[in-house]
Design a protein that fits this description.
Layout (H helix, E strand, L loop, with lengths): L1 H12 L6 E2 L2 H22 L7 H17 L12 H20 L4 E2 L2 H24 L7 H14 L6 H24 L32 H24 L2 E2 L2 E2 L12 E2 L5 H9 L6 E7 L8 E6 L1 E2 L4 E2 L4 E2 L21 E10 L11 E2 L2 E5 L4 E3 L6 E3 L8 E9 L3 H6 L5 H7 L8 H10 L6 H15 L3 E2 L9 H11 L1 E2 L1 H14 L4 E7 L3 E4 L2 E5 L3 E9 L3 E4 L77 H30 L29 H16 L10 H12 L3 H19 L8 H18 L2 H9 L2 H34 L1
Parallel strand pairs: 1-2, 17-18
Antiparallel strand pairs: 3-4, 5-10, 6-11, 6-21, 7-12, 7-19, 8-9, 11-16, 13-16, 14-15, 19-22, 20-21, 22-23
InterPro entries: Bact_TGase-like, Papain-like_cys_pep_sf, TgpA_N, Transglutaminase-like
Pfam families: TgpA_N, Transglut_core
Keywords: Membrane, Transmembrane, Transmembrane helix
Length: 819
């Protein structure tokens, strides 16, 4: 049990593979599991109380971790000392910081490797205690399951089915080993006749060299088959069934009907941190634009709700009226006075991008051409889908880019009532220090635009803030207070969320936008956006100009490398002009060449090569998709065809084996207990046996009663009387029965040729079909019961053979020891 528990822990630890870059963590985890198992084994050998088992396991684990990670500070290289313990604590802190700094898969630095080994070792201690000492193998699955929950919570892809299958099989082995130990505790098992072995008489020793095995029982065999079948179904069924987010085969409420469906997506803020900390800095998308002023940011989300801890977007529901369908989108709210110009952007999303259900588009989109079922949220103009992903797609976006001036924003007065009620809402639990801070930072500002400019300048210049990707993502309101008043370290999420909140405190409608900066230019008109261009920024509402973005995040080499501060948000100089050098931006003006001046532009690699001439896919209406229906129909047809194909293959095999030369002596094969003969290499009566088995299968398929105890002659007589057969089918039935009798009992071989018996079988089958109803005939053709019985028999035989192999493997140590 100790060995099986350790192996089960190792097998389930395979599910941690998505978290790490490289495989060295598995070997350190293996050593940790062995150390924990040895500790528990020593405790049991000393017959100590069960409560001391985990203490011995943890002590052995500590010895291993000390030898592996703090040998220089330990006594004798492995005995813990104050210095080694302090080093391990510091190593754990470094590992925790690194785990929050990087997105999975994380590099296997010393701290992260230490945390991985320690975590796997602690799970091994718990499994050893529950399964081995306390004999509670089933609850031991909880700590094993915990190792699968970590990658499932951290990564959107979760754990692959092979890793799950390995852990599931190991857990089943743990349950089987525990059951065997429990049964073995009652003493020597009763021996029975199995697989053709002779049962020794009572009190007699078994023959020399012959092993008598205990019968595990039909219940044990059934339990194993049910367990293995359940695991197989759990793994394979989700892969085979095309389940749609809108329901099976797209028939959910998100269809063309009147029902609405709530949109669920991964947490945008969690996705942002993962993108910013990816080690490969992979290409997300490339695009071409005709904007003469250079491209603007590409927005994915508009987060308009703040609950005191986190920013989220309002619940999105989708109906038929929200589909794009190639039509013009709703006009952008509030944009009526500021000058605008139309921009066309052609986007190509990388095929490596997964689960991008929101489209990155320049604000404010007026028309989007893309295939698939895509929808628009009217209030925020977010483009999203219930079923499709943007990965690998090309699309064209026509958008209106506003060009407000500082004067336009300063002259904006008043807000619509619905905008004020929704976009200035602030929870009551906001600390008074934050409210006072917003007033102090913007003291002396006469307009909303002046207040916003002062907030932005405070975050980027005068407030003493530092851009730091290692800062954990904020989870509570206290994290925001700590960022604004104490640490002043964070990345774009903290800067955007804080400025939007302080703007709401001042009465300025605001929200947090998320997406990507404009990226880097590879050639005139062509831009590349990478994962580290992911960004968050605040959008503030000004009547006449609508929603306009600000940039409180430090930019350049010391901040977000490709972030750009809009001209209208820079302070005015003494002459009343907008000061282009007032804030440290990567380039003073926004134009086609501004990205080349960015200090951060140099490290970006041009992996895309020449990307000119990106051709978007032809625009589709984005309506009903036939793919789920086709896939579902094919799956149903395949499932329905399985019994029919199995029946046809069985019939072909029975007649095909007649061409195989007989082996051994002539004569007939012995009948089985069901009145048939097992399939195998035919002898002289092979044709008779094949005909008899075919007729029996046809009778079962057509729902006719078949009594295994009847002799061939009795079965033929009963079927003839029951069906009132005509002369021709009655004679054919008689010849089949007579041939089977001769094959079973006579010394001479049957004289009827196989061709005649095969023709008789077809005649009798037609008579069976004519004597039953239409429903029974279709069932015999499409879903023959004999095929299902054959499948059950094959599964039963496979289970018995597997059980026999397991018995032999379990008994192998005893046989080696006896020799």
């Amino acid at each position: 049990m100790t060995i099986v528990a350790a192996v089960a822990t190792l097998a389930c630890s395979v599910g941690l593979y998505p978290l790490f870059a490289g495989g060295r963590w598995f070997w350190t985890g293996t050593a940790a599991v062995l150390a924990a198992a040895c500790g528990g084994l020593v405790s049991r050998r000393l017959r100590l109380p069960a409560v001391l088992d985990p203490l011995f396991g943890l002590a052995a684990l500590l010895l291993y971790l000390t030898a592996a990670y703090a040998a220089g500070e330990a006594w004798l290289g492995f005995v813990p000392s104050p210095g080694s313990l302090s080093h391990l604590v510091d190593l754990a802190g470094d590992g925790w910081s690194a785990a929050n700094r990087y997105a999975a898969p994380v590099p296997l630095v010393s701290g992260i490797g230490f945390l991985a080994a320690a975590g796997i070792g602690v799970v091994a201690v718990l499994v050893d205690l529950l399964a081995v000492r306390l004999r509670r193998a089933a609850p031991a699955g909880l700590p094993l399951l915990a190792m699968y929950s970590v990658p499932a919570a951290v990564r959107q892809d979760g754990v692959g089915w092979p890793a799950f299958a390995i852990g599931a099989v190991a857990f089943l082995a743990l349950l089987m080993a525990d059951a065997r130990e429990q049964v073995g505790g009652w003493g020597r098992a009763v021996t029975v006749h199995r697989h053709g072995e002779e049962l020794p008489l009572a009190g007699a020793e078994p023959p020399s060299g012959q092993r008598v095995r205990a019968d595990g029982g039909r219940r044990a065999a059934s339990g194993r088959r049910i367990a293995l079948g359940s695991v197989a179904i759990a793994v394979l069924l989700p892969l085979a069934v095309p389940i749609h987010p809108r329901g099976v085969f797209g028939m959910g409420g998100g269809g063309r009907g009147r029902g609405d469906q709530t949109v669920t997506t991964p947490d945008p803020l969690v996705s942002l941190k993962r993108e910013l900390t990816r080690l490969d800095d992979s290409v997300v998308l490339t695009y071409r634009t005709d904007d003469p002023d250079g491209p603007d940011y590409l927005r994915l989300y508009a987060l308009d709700r703040f609950d005191g801890d986190r920013w989220t977007y309002s619940r999105l529901s989708s109906s038929a009226a929200d589909r794009l369908s190639g039509r013009t989108l709703p006009p952008p709210p509030g944009l009526s006075i500021a000058p605008v110009h139309e921009v066309t952007t052609r986007v190509k999303v990388s095929g490596e991008v997964r689960d991008m259900t929101f489209l990155p588009v320049p604000y404010a989109p007026t028309r989007v051409s893309i295939k698939g079922d895509w929808r628009v949220h009217r209030q925020s103009l977010m483009i999203y889908s219930l079923s499709d992903s943007a990965g690998g797609r090309s699309y064209t976006v026509t958008s209106l880019r506003a060009d407000p001036t500082a004067a336009d924003l300063s002259a904006a007065v008043g807000y619509p009532a619905d905008v004020v009620s929704h976009y200035t809402a602030v929870p009551k639990n906001i600390p008074p220090q934050i409210r006072a801070l917003a007033q102090n930072v913007t003291a002396g500002a006469a307009t909303a635009r002046a207040q916003a400019v002062k907030l932005q300048r405070w975050f980027t210049l005068t407030g003493g803030f530092t851009y730091d990707l290692s800062t954990p993502a904020p989870q509570r309101g206290n994290d925001l207070v700590d960022f604004l008043l104490r640490s002043k370290r964070g990345y774009c999420e903290q800067f955007a969320a804080s400025m939007a909140l302080m703007a709401r405190i001042l009465g300025i409608p605001s929200r947090v936008a998320m997406g990507y900066t404009s990226g880097t230019q590879t050639q005139p008109g062509t831009w590349v956006v990478r994962s580290r261009d992911a960004h968050a920024w605040p959008e503030l509402y000004f009547e006449g100009s609508g929603w306009v973005r600000f940039e409180p995040t430090p930019s350049g080499a010391a901040g977000q490398g490709t972030a750009v501060t809009p001209a209208y948000s820079r302070p005015a100089d003494g002459g009343g002009r907008q000061g282009d050098d007032a804030l440290p931006t990567p380039a003073a003006t926004s134009g086609p060449d501004r990205s080349s001046a960015s200090p951060q532009a140099a490290p970006h690699r041009n992996d895309t090569g020449a990307q000119n001439g990106l051709t978007p896919e032809d625009s589709g209406d984005g309506g009903w998709s036939a793919a789920p229906w086709i896939a579902g129909g094919v799956l149903v047809l395949l499932l329905l065809a399985v019994p029919m194909v199995l029946r046809a293959l069985t019939r072909r095999r029975r007649w095909a084996v007649l061409s195989t030369p007989p082996q051994g002596r002539g004569g007939s094969s012995p009948p089985d207990v069901r009145g048939g003969v097992p399939d195998g290499v035919p002898d002289g009566g092979g044709a008779a046996h094949a005909a008899w088995r075919e007729m029996r299968a046809d009778a079962l398929d057509h729902g006719l009663e078949w009594r295994p105890s009847d002799s061939p002659r009795a079965a033929a007589r009963r079927l003839g009387e029951l069906l009132e057969l005509d002369e021709v089918p009655a004679e054919a039935l008689g010849r089949i029965a007579r041939a089977e009798e001769l094959a079973r009992y006579a010394r001479t071989r049957p004289a009827d040729p196989p061709e005649l018996l095969r023709a008789d079988v077809r005649t009798v089958r037609a008579a069976f079909a004519a004597s039953v109803g239409r429903r029974a005939r279709w069932r015999a053709r499409v879903f023959p019961p004999s095929a299902m019985a054959q499948a059950r028999s094959a599964l039963r035989g496979t289970g018995l053979r597997a059980a026999d192999l397991a018995d032999r493997l379990n008994d192998l140590p005893n046989r080696v020891r006896r020799r």
